[in-house]
Amino acid sequence: MIKEKNRETIISAATGKEPVDILFTNAKVINVFTGEILEQSVAVKEGYICGFGNYDAVRRVDLEGMYVAPGLMDSHVHIESSMVTPVQFSRGVLPFGTTTVIADPHEIANVLGTRGIEYMVQSAEKSTMNILFSMPSCVPATDMETTGATLNAEAIAPFMQNNRIVALAEMMNYPGVISADSQVMAKIKAAHKIRKPVDGHAPGVSGRDLWAYAAAGISSDHECTTTQEALEKLRLGMHIMVREGTCAKKS
């Protein structure tokens, strides 16, 4: 999103009243809105695309027919699973077209608690890609785990104010949601109070239990293993994330 303080400058460059910062020439632009591939130059000002075609420019870069496409977004990832820092993760992922990730740092939170989350957010500031976070909702994931930390609603609330934390992460404690557990509901309410979404994690939950889960204001799920399960959740207005990995097939 364009920052308001930059808007007049970008408008001026778009109209040609001042030079753009960079003009990428001889590009094949993939327009995802119309399904077209257009051969044109791309003008950039203050880090934003401000126009197409010929512009006076401070710097020109000949793409020699390379494709220009919007960056991909990964809406659910655990960076710690890669065993590298956010900075190193971005170096490995960015060249393949993913420019934004929404990471759930619940693995490091289970070990280091709030210190781990603070580290991930601070490290993301140094990254070359756009790393956003969802706040871990289930630390520990179950009462049967032995972890290095426990995050209750009071510990979570201050983090929800951080602009880099855009959601409450996957609510794995679906029995707690369905039974309206006070701590679980306090976490969900903390997100909703500042209009941030709550991601879901409800494998195999259906019928009235699913209706109760959705009624709590949980807006997504990435644990569907059958078409029928995905369709039932979709009919309730939940966003369905389709994924496949080495340890989670056809999910």
Automatic annotation (TrEMBL):
Matching SUPFAM superfamilies: Composite domain of metallo-dependent hydrolases (SSF51338), Metallo-dependent hydrolases (SSF51556)
GO molecular function: adenine deaminase activity
Domain of life according to the entry: Bacteria
Broad EC category: hydrolase
Enzyme Commission code: 3.5.4.2
Keyword Protease: no
Alphabetical UniProt keywords: Hydrolase
Residue intervals of the Amidohydrolase-related domain: 67-242
Keyword Nucleotide-binding tagged: no
A Pfam family per the record: Amidohydro_1
Name of this chain's protein: Adenine deaminase
Taxonomic classification: Bacteria, Pseudomonadati, Thermodesulfobacteriota, Desulfobacteria, Desulfobacterales
